Amino acid sequence: MPRAHSFREIGARGLRVLLAAGSLCLAACAATGERAGGGAAGSGGIATRRTGAAIAKNDVEAADWYRQAAEDGVPGAMVDYAYMLLHGRGVEENEAVAAAWLREALDRGSARAMTVLGVLYLEGRGVPEDKAEGVRLIRLAAEKGDPLGMRNLGALHEHGLTVAGKVLQVRDGAEAVRLYRRVAEMGDSAAQAYLASMLLRGDGVVKDDAEGLVWLRKSADQGYGPAQSHLGHLHEKGEIVPPSLEEAARWYRRSAESGYARGQVRWALALAAGKGVGRNDEEAVRWLRLAAGQNDAWGQTELASMIMEGRGTACDLAEADALAEKAARQAYGEAKLLLGRLRDRKHPPACPAS
């Protein structure tokens, strides 16, 4: 089974991923500060300004304080509480209630609420799907200067959007680059990665590998998982940067630790093959389980393959079959091939002899 995926790491999976992957990351882009997704949050607590002492993180308490502030009429708290509701952090997940709080914050003038509600309309989460309304809200938020709105409007321009023959957003690479650059210069790690991708491909701008690499590194250094994975892939293939399996593995590990599913798969495959790092099948399986747990089809397929082979874990054909079916239902071709082999009556698979 092929182990490498030669696709564009940033934005290759379409508009929905570009809009959803970073758009609802309000922990880093809270409406209270109106900041767009900068660097990765540190671990172990938030340092206080005066003493540097760590404050223990507690999602349940955070959600409760956000709720109380929201009920007191604070628009930023309404958006933050909506984020907690959308992701089930510290409170039971409830997209409809989240959308209601976002609507309340929007009515009180929050451009960030306008952006996030626009994404929900695009995806039909907590509100009836209405892509025209989603585009309208995101465009208005961008016009009001919301960095997250500008980034998402850039995504719409990069891909264009047509529904039932009606063009809701014309594809305009140059405008996407302009918007991404504007937000990237504010320090937004996702926008930096998207801008890097446009520069590396020469989409909407003259191809510029040097500048693209600068922005990609800026994003990766801030802890943005997709950028870290992309940078590792460039080192693995020796494209733009010197080839180095060790450097590739280092970036894959950082991407995996950020929680990015595809980074977890790439780090797992490096471990399984001993590429740039000591071979460790057990660790590879552990990381693949994390990616598969995020419903990543590639991770599910690679995990199924490892389980079939009894590598790093006990062979379990039933589990492998279930994983391959999940991935196949996401239209992942390699999973369909694996599922066919698992269910082939003439040549049934068997666990390797112990």
Molecular structure report:
- The model is unreliable at about 1-50 (pLDDT under 50).
- Strands 1-2 form a two-stranded antiparallel sheet. Strands 3-4 form a two-stranded antiparallel sheet.
- The relative contact order is 0.08.
- It has two domains: about 15-40 and about 55-180, Tetratricopeptide repeat domain (Serine Threonine Protein Phosphatase 5, Tetratricopeptide repeat, Alpha Horseshoe), CATH 1.25.40.10; about 225-354, Serine Threonine Protein Phosphatase 5, Tetratricopeptide repeat.
- It is built from 17 helices and four strands.
- The protein is mostly helical.
Q: How many structural domains are formed by the residues?
A: 2
Number of strands: 4
Round the mean pLDDT to the nearest integer and report it.
Answer: 88
Helix count from the secondary structure assignment: 17
What portion of residues is helical? 55-70%
Main sheet specs: 2 strands, antiparallel
Write the SSE topology.
Elements: H1 15-23, E1 46-47, E2 54-55, H2 59-71, H3 75-87, H4 95-107, H5 111-123, H6 131-143, H7 147-159, E3 161-163, E4 166-169, H8 173-184, H9 189-201, H10 209-221, H11 225-237, H12 245-257, H13 261-273, H14 281-293, H15 297-309, H16 317-328, H17 333-342
Antiparallel strand pairs: 1-2, 3-4
Helix pairs in contact: 1-5, 1-7, 2-3, 3-4, 4-5, 5-6, 5-7, 6-7, 7-8, 8-9, 9-10, 10-11, 11-12, 12-13, 13-14, 14-15, 15-16, 16-17
